[in-house]
Amino acid sequence: MENLNRIKFSKGKIEGIVQIYTYKDDDDNIYYSECPALDIVSYGDTEVEAQKMVEEAIEIQLDYMNKKGTLIEELLKLGWEKNPFNKQKFENKVFTDKIPPYLISKNPNIRNQKVFA
Questions:
Q1: Is the pTM higher than 0.90?
Q2: In a domain, 42, yes or no
Q3: Is it the case that residue 99 has pLDDT exceeding 60?
Q4: Domain around 45
Q5: What is the rounded distance in angstroms from the CA atom of residue 23 to the CA atom of residue 21?
Q6: CB-based contact 22:31 (threshold 8 Å)
């Protein structure tokens, strides 16, 4: 199976794909979008708004860590590994095969999307 969580560094630019999961909390009538591979969660009044918010949060967080010089260190803490064939590429295989069980328990109608970081 293709690894859906990957980040590549090229000429100071960050590119990548990470999985996000979106679900609705019926108790508070809010949609949540979560990126477990980067430990980022956001929310919105609609599914689309929640997805946009988490995409923005991912972009801001990666840019901040890159400018601060801690991006590689933080990715390693989150379980990411360097690709042995490409030193500029990182991968995280933690949640690529299936939706994490803890997210399914929050909402059985969870959606799985890919996001470009």
A1: no
A2: yes
A3: no
A4: 6-116
A5: 7
A6: yes
